[in-house]
Design goal:
It contains seven helices and seven strands; from the N terminus they run H-H-E-H-H-E-H-E-E-H-E-E-E-H. The strands form two sheets. Strands 1, 2, 3, 4 and 5 form a five-stranded mixed sheet that branches. A two-stranded antiparallel ribbon has the order 6-7.
Length: 227
């Protein structure tokens, strides 16, 4: 039987449309527009490869964590809890551990801090987070000029010296509140984001081009996760 345009399977037309969208996305990518990023994910479910290296660990705190550990959400966790978790990850052979938690000040008691610093040294693969803020400062003068200051709060020296590295825990958000690109390195020291610091540590390449696009794996909680 000879196929005709009217009898061709509908999937053939859908395939042509998808291929056209993909080619359009590749063409737009040369201009580094958000449209190129979005269009390339139209076919994300076809031939999708799951992220299988569960040795890359991101540690963060949410309300469920506070409730589970009976911690006050308004108070800082004891660094001893983080030390115990990091020791477990060290024993499990984690390839890298990114703490999306600020350790920018020492605690009230030195023993838990020292325990966490010791765990960082023993692990030797932990990346810590820093905080970056833009603040407006008003200078009173005849002209009443305004100035913008950039404030970078790195991890406390005790922890920064023991960790494998650190980066800014900030995101580059587009006008529609979608994260498509990594944060560009900041300041004269070219401090990168927490993601970039971790990527550099594990040997990822091509992370210092003008446009640092995020490798998309899916929506929130698409990666495997545990409490």
């Amino acid at each position: 039987m000879v196929s005709t345009p009217n009898t061709r399977p509908r999937w053939f037309a859908a395939l042509l449309l998808a291929a056209g969208i993909a080619l359009l996305g590749l063409a737009l990518k040369e201009k580094f527009s958000p449209a190129s990023y979005d269009s390339l994910h139209v076919l994300a479910t076809l031939g999708k490869k799951d992220f299988t290296d569960d040795r890359l660990v991101i540690v963060y705190l949410d309300l469920a964590s506070y409730l589970h550990e009976r911690q006050d959400p308004a108070a800082r966790w004891s660094r001893d809890l983080h030390a115990r978790l990091l020791d477990r990850l060290t024993a499990d052979g984690a390839r890298a551990v990114a703490f999306d938690i600020l350790f920018d000040e020492p605690g009230d008691v030195p023993e838990p801090d020292n325990a966490f610093a010791a765990a960082l040294k023993k692990n030797s693969r932990a990346i810590l987070a820093a905080e970056h803020n833009n603040k407006n400062s008003h200078e009173t003068s005849a002209n009443e000029s305004w100035a913008r200051m950039t404030v970078l709060n790195p991890p406390a020296e005790l922890f920064a010296n023991a960790a494998a590295g650190w980066g800014v825990a900030s995101l580059a958000v587009d006008d529609d509140f979608v994260v498509r690109r990594h944060l560009q390195p900041l300041g004269a020291e070219q401090v990168g984001s927490l993601s970039l610091a971790t990527a550099r540590f594990i040997g990822a390449t091509n992370f210092y081009h003008d446009n640092l696009w995020v490798r998309y794996y899916g929506p929130a909680l698409a990666l495997s996760h545990v409490s």
